[in-house]
Specification:
Elements (H helix, E strand, L loop, with lengths): L9 E5 L5 H8 L4 E3 L2 E5 L1 E4 L2 E11 L7 H9 L4 E5 L5 H11 L11 H4 L9 E9 L2 E11 L2 E9 L8 H15 L4 E8 L15 E3 L5 E3 L8 E2 L23
Parallel strand pairs: 9-10
Antiparallel strand pairs: 1-3, 2-3, 4-5, 5-10, 5-11, 5-13, 6-7, 7-8, 8-9, 11-12
Length: about 250
């Protein structure tokens, strides 16, 4: 089955304290999560446009930063990076709230929609990457760690620092962490086949894309125009039929 001949996938479940072994297995099958909500889908609707979803991963031993990514590294050489356990300080909350104002649709309601409370968190490790300009916190990202893989969960930054390309910079530091700690895969999250605000993730090469049929294949970025949705196009899609228990995804 080619990527252009897909059936609709829209699956989800909720689980607290998900075992680490399940987490890595789910990433390998195109799953993502926010907090205790796990999901995978191969389409997405944004601003009345239909987008085809692609799940990406990098083999970190093969990754080499591009010329523009090396410029981002140089541009941010004055920043100090702290990697450690999650610390939801007042500074973190305030930056998160300012950052989400940049989005007109579907921003997380609050930070715990993204990282989950301590009692709901999976049994793998979630690390907080904190970037400081002198002593001022200007960006935060969260990286899940499980087995031989890591997964970029979410990143946010001070809108006044947008010229630093901190979303790209935090990804580069997460890849660096993954490689230095002897792990194999980094999952940067979803992109769209069509042009979108996720296109910066397409520039991390070489990458693999999940074919939604059990295999990862080499990825060649595409930049198409999204389809405008006609009224009622997905009116018969019932999300309830895609809800299932953790047992259904296997060990």
């Amino acid at each position: 089955m080619s990527l252009n001949e897909l059936e609709i996938i829209d699956e989800r479940f909720e689980h607290r304290q998900l075992p680490e072994s399940h987490l890595e297995m789910l990433w390998a099958r195109g799953w993502r999560h926010f907090g205790s909500r796990y999901f995978r889908h191969n389409f997405f609707v944004h601003s009345s446009k239909l987008f085809s979803v692609r799940a990406l991963r990098l083999r970190v031993a093969d990754f080499r930063p591009s010329r523009s990514q090396r410029r981002v590294l140089r541009k941010n050489a004055d920043l100090r990076l702290r990697i450690g356990e999650i610390r939801t300080t007042r500074e973190v909350f305030e930056i998160f709230e300012r950052h989400k104002e940049r989005f007109s649709e579907n921003p997380p309601r609050d930070i715990f929609d993204v990282i989950a409370s301590a009692e709901e968190r999976h049994t793998g490790q979630t690390l907080q990457f904190s970037l400081y300009l002198s002593d001022r916190l200007i960006a935060v990202s969260y990286l899940d760690v499980a087995g031989k893989s890591t997964s970029g969960l979410y990143a946010f930054f001070e809108p006044t620092q947008a010229r630093r390309s901190l979303g790209i910079y935090t990804m580069l530091k997460e890849i660096e962490f993954t490689r230095e700690n002897g792990m194999t895969f980094y999952y940067p999250g979803y992109v769209f086949r069509e042009s979108s605000f996720y296109d910066y993730k397409k520039r991390f090469r070489p990458a693999e894309v999940y074919d939604w049929n059990g295999s990862w294949i080499p990825y060649e970025p595409e930049y198409l125009s999204p389809v405008t949705i006609r009224h009622g196009l997905f009116a018969d899609l019932d999300p309830e039929k895609y809800l299932f228990d953790l047992e259904d995804v296997g060990e």
